[in-house]
Amino acid sequence: MSTVPGRPVRCAGIEVHDVEDGAVIYHPGTDDVHFLNDTARCVMLLCDGQHDAAEMDEALARLCNARAVPGLTAPILEQFAAAGLIEDASARTP
Amino acid sequence: MNAHGPDPELGLLLALGRSRLTADQAGVLEARLARPFDVSRLHRLAAEHGLMPLLYRHLVVERPDALPAETAAAVSLEFRQHAISRWPMARRLRELLQVLRDAGVTAVPYKGPALAAQLFGNYAMRQYGDLDILVRPSQVGAAVEQLQAHGLSAPHGVPADWDGFVRRTRHDYAMRDRRTGTLVELHWGLTYRYQGFRVDPEWLLNDPVEVNYLGARIACMNPSAQLLALAVHGVKHQWERLGWLVDVAELMSGHDPDWDWIDARARAIGFTRAWRSALLLCDTLLGLPDTVPMSRARRDRPAARLARRLAREISRDDPRPIGFVTRLRFDLLARPGAAAKLVYLSRLLTLPSEADLAGGRVSPAWAATYAVTRPLRLLRKMRRQGRR
To answer: Which of A9, B119, B369, B384 has the greatest number of CB atoms lying within 10 Å of its CB?
Structure first.
């Protein structure tokens, strides 16, 4: 299992393009392409180094006008981390 | 298509053949959905006609209950796989256009993912199998050099001693991108010499519009040029795919083309009848706003006959490609006047085909004999394909 960064941020060069009800995400380092459903796409957009997983749960709930579900984003972040799509914002050199 | 209109599945396909549906169009779609239809045939037809992405948009994303759950899941999976598999091509197009621009080569994309972005909002909304780029004839050499330097193979199927002939009589080079395996067609025109309808590439390259494409701004043909190019392409292939008609209908109704500009150019290349038949075909199948060119087209009886014939062919639901005889009949009908028909026939019967050049079956030394044997080859091809 990969470690989920505290405040995840998209790795440099990652491209995210909206495609209908989801997005295609491209990792230039590995040349991998993934399709994200709408929820995963929202989580990816929240990976800006400003939010931790709990804050993302709340942000998602606000987006869907629903009550926050604790732990909702954690498995998605794990998959992102395993695919090498995110890193910890604090590890980034300014 | 019969006297009662299209069958249920074709009717549904036609009803969802727009990027965004107006309230009226949505009403038509809902009414068709309310009647019985064969869902697996609809699914198959959508894929065959290049409309799977619009099936996904209108009947899976926007109307989650329109299809049985199993079919909706299959279409979703298909669309996602399509979006993933087309990505390397779409991205490569962005890179190659940049390479050409940096080298001072004027280039615009033709069809493919850029048209998908221009008309439907993202690169995955059309089905395509290769990339097409249009450049000026005078810049073909420079473009080939740049593309080869950036990972494309040399143009294939073109023996060195036939290159001049190919440049005069054909309209593209086929090059293979080594990185993605994608076929890239570098165009300096749209039709073979025998086909006529020789669109001046300057018409298509001038006055481009900027389109947001995968986060970059790229130059694309303006809507009028795009419409002319797509009409010529559709006619060339007898509008075998409804998806091509949907592209045209989308441009006609939502992008304010300059009708006089198109009419003048169609006249200049003997394309008026074929252009009007395209307008009428689009109107019959997809419904178009009432415009001046449309009223003129309605008064053109040979164009109307051609459009009816095409509509019948489209609704035949025969998975085989259109055969030589049907193609020939259509091509002759699309050309008004005996002179144009004769020129077309004489060139068809004497110019070496792509397959002949690729197979190295002809050499300049034997070119004179080729004109004699070519009709026999065509006859053999016709017999092989049968009457279709």
So the answer is: B119
